[in-house]
């Protein structure tokens, strides 16, 4: 009986040693590369951005814009178009972003897009209309993407109460459908 137990223990020990051996090779399925190929960089995407109407009415107008993705994600492309381009129809729409406004970073975490702008965005002209339309344009443009539920606007990496004292941006903002033209 003792011999059988010793043989069994020896066999188990051998299996354990062979199973843990560093020389053993395992079959690993390679993960697909996440680097963008040249064709991905040349891929065009159509995004919807929201602009203020030129007539000063209190609603936002959607504008579809097609751009190459380059190294950006679709939400980054949309935000870049919103901040760094003029509307296609300047008789109907205006951009409210102050000159020199830069997008410092944008990251997505748990459904919230954290968008960090340069301090120039606070140079938005005084007035509740402009501030409301600007912040809502940012939020509604980014919440066009299903993965983004809310947007936290940051200035120079920090949360601030508002751009000019009218629209609270201390907490993440949700899509505002009441300002979309029907």
Labels describing this entry:
single chain; 182 residues; four-stranded mixed beta sheet; three-stranded antiparallel beta sheet
Q: Which secondary structure elements does this structure contain, and how are they paired or packed?
A:
Elements: H1 2-19, H2 38-41, E1 44-53, E2 61-68, H3 74-84, E3 93-94, E4 103-109, E5 112-117, H4 128-142, E6 150-155, E7 173-174
Parallel strand pairs: 5-6
Antiparallel strand pairs: 1-2, 1-3, 4-5, 6-7
Helix pairs in contact: 3-4
Any overview of this molecule?
- With 182 residues, the chain is α+β, with helices and mostly antiparallel strands.
- Helices cover 26% and strands 23% of the residues.
- The protein is built from four helices and seven strands.
- It has helices at 2-19, 38-41, 74-84, 128-142; strands spanning 44-53, 61-68, 93-94, 103-109, 112-117, 150-155, 173-174.
- The chain has a four-stranded mixed sheet with strand order 4-5-6-7, with helices on one face. Strands 2-1-3 form a three-stranded antiparallel sheet, covered by helices on one side.
- The chain is globular.
């Amino acid at each position: 009986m003792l011999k059988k137990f010793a043989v069994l223990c020896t066999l188990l020990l051998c299996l354990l040693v062979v199973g843990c051996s560093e020389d053993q090779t395992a079959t690993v399925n390679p993960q697909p590369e996440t680097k963008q190929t040249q064709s991905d960089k040349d891929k065009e995407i159509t995004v919807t951005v929201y602009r203020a109407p030129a007539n000063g009415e209190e609603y936002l107008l959607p504008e579809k814009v097609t751009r190459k993705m380059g190294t950006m994600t679709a939400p980054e492309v949309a935000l870049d178009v919103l901040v760094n381009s003029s509307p296609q129809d300047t008789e109907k729409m205006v951009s409210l972003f102050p000159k020199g406004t830069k997008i410092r970073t944008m990251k997505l975490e748990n459904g919230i897009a954290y968008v960090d702008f340069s301090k120039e965005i606070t140079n938005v002209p005084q007035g509740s209309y402009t501030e409301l339309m600007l912040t809502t344009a940012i939020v509604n443009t980014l919440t066009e993407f299903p993965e983004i539920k809310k947007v936290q606007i940051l200035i120079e990496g920090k949360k601030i109460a508002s751009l000019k004292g009218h629209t609270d941006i201390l907490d993440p903002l949700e899509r505002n459908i009441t300002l979309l033209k029907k």
